[in-house]
Amino acid sequence: MNLRVLAEKDLAMTLENFGEGVEITFTDLKENEHKVFGRVGDIGFGYDTDGNQISTRVVQATWRLSSMVSESGQYLIPNRGWACSWVDLSGKRWNAFVTRCEPDRTLGIGRVWISFDLEKE
User: Fold this and answer.
1) How far, in Å, CA of 73 to CA of 103, rounded?
2) Best label site of 21, 22, 78, 84, fewest CB within 10 Å?
3) Looking at residue 77, what is its pLDDT?
4) In 3D, which of 58, 75, 70, 92 has the Cα closest to residue 8?
């Protein structure tokens, strides 16, 4: 079996089927909603330009690229300004915006960095 095909099947299990994923809803600039299952990481610290740990909020979402495709079969890649929402473990719904996307077409994973205030980015 091709290793990329095997990796895609593994992604389906690890990101979507083990029950640990969360439903992530992306809304594009034309108000079209795209729902995927994946992981959301919400970390309460980061680093300044000198490498010192600072209090901040770094949020990123990861999903299987093949879960979000256009009618023509192309991957839909969220762009800056797309809305993103999910529900955390406590049941709170979060609404934010995509600031940067890094699709990894080799592994078949999409990853976005999320901001709660796009104007301050």
Assistant:
1) 16
2) 22
3) 94
4) 75
